[in-house]
Amino acid sequence: MRVGAWYRGGLLRALLTPPPARGPARLLSGEHGMAQGPASKDYSLPNTSWGRELRGLYEQYMERCKDEAWKRLPSFCDNSMFVGTIMDPTRKDRAAAPEMSMEPPKFTQPPRLFTRSIQGDGLGFEYVTFYNSDQQKAECLFQSGPFLEGAPGFVHGGAIATMIDNLMGTCAILVSGVVMTANLNINYKSPVPLGSTVVLKSQVDRLEGRKMFISCRVHSANQKTLHVEATSLFVKLDPNKNV
Length: 243
Hints:
Number of helices: 4
Mean pLDDT: 81
CATH topology: Thiol Ester Dehydrase, Chain A
Largest sheet: 7 strands, antiparallel
Order of helices and strands: HEEHEHEEHEEEE
Low-confidence stretches: 1-36, 89-96
Structural class: alpha+beta
Strand order of the largest sheet: 3-4-5-7-8-9-6
């Protein structure tokens, strides 16, 4: 797998950067329809845009969290805060991260996680992720907003792919540390109605050295409709090679 020197993806950047020090909330600009608010805001918590299905499933999953194996993962605009929160501080993944081969570009606004970049509750990606450390699996409750339309009345396939890659990447990071997507295969079985809630379930299928194979299935909230099946290959980055 070749990784271009131009790559400045959120998860890799976050893993290579120490978590920010606690202090006054940093405000993010809200220009051009992008998210704004304190960088420390946890977007995985319920808000007024959540429908009955998403709220009901959230309550069910929070009951699961009474078992210590399951936990709800926070979600921030600033991905370094997310990684800094979920990563075990005793792990050596940060120290083992590869060096950047060139200086990152300077932006007029701070980078932010793609799935948390749309301003306004309920307009884009409304989701919450849960992780089971014993079973090495992650599950996500996702409600799509009107800004994610593809074919009229249905969620854009790219938005579904984004959520799948996001969930499997989260699972991979929690298991192996600094990783990148090497391959992603998606089979769309049934279109996802815009505004509906779906459940994504991913799990680690096997490990082969630095390679991690993960699968994911997307079902309707009532589990009666299979919308998508996906498989992926993630690779743990070599600390001795620049990216």
